Amino acid sequence: MLTIGQKFPQFSKTAVVSLEKGKEFETLTSDYLVNDDNVWTVMFWWPKDFTFVCPTEIAEFNKNFGEFRDRETRLIGASTDSEFVHAAWRTHHDDLRDLKFPMLADTSKSLAEELGILEPNEKIAYRATFIIDPTGIIRWVSVNDLNVGRNVKEVLRVLDGLQTDELCPCNWEKGQETLTA
């Protein structure tokens, strides 16, 4: 699995960005992650569309979209399902209809495989989260078992800590003192 300090892989994938007819899809590339504007990226992966745990996570990331935006951080959701499956799921699931971030389709499974998060039996993505800095370097990785949803507040807490570029003690939260060496 790719880990902290490594460059996020090159990719070019289709993503669902809207439900508006004719504007549903865009191509996202790894160039989107690298910028001079100090914008970070959180890419989170789920195993399968039309399941039970996955929409709870996606909806929670969406509820916290403003928190990520306030931290100058882009959100990208991803799975190995196709852009058409993503669009259908968004259309038919009340909690997903108004997503404010793209749903990346890794139908070839090449990005999930390169990241090292492809589950070996079903060939679906593990429930993985990557925080990527503006230079395209992975700064945090978390992977949950397929049955356990992640904690979006913890993703925000870690992002806050990374963005301080300081030493943050156990259970540190934004606004608290950091450590001096």
UniProtKB/TrEMBL annotation:
Reactions performed catalytically: a hydroperoxide + NADH + H(+) = an alcohol + NAD(+) + H2O
Keywords: Antioxidant, Oxidoreductase, Peroxidase, Redox-active center
Pfam families (alphabetical): AhpC-TSA
E.C. numbers: 1.11.1.26
UniProt keyword Oxidoreductase, yes or no: yes
GO MF term set: peroxidase activity
Domain of life from the UniProt record: Bacteria
Enzyme class: oxidoreductase
InterPro entries: AhpC/TSA, Peroxiredoxin, Peroxiredoxin_AhpC-typ, Thioredoxin-like_sf, Thioredoxin_domain
Gene3D superfamilies, A to Z: Glutaredoxin
Assembly and interaction partners: Homodimer; disulfide-linked, upon oxidation. 5 homodimers assemble to form a ring-like decamer.
PANTHER family: ALKYL HYDROPEROXIDE REDUCTASE C, THIOREDOXIN PEROXIDASE
Name of the protein in question: Alkyl hydroperoxide reductase C
Species this chain originates from: Mucilaginibacter lutimaris
Lineage of the organism: Bacteria, Pseudomonadati, Bacteroidota, Sphingobacteriia, Sphingobacteriales
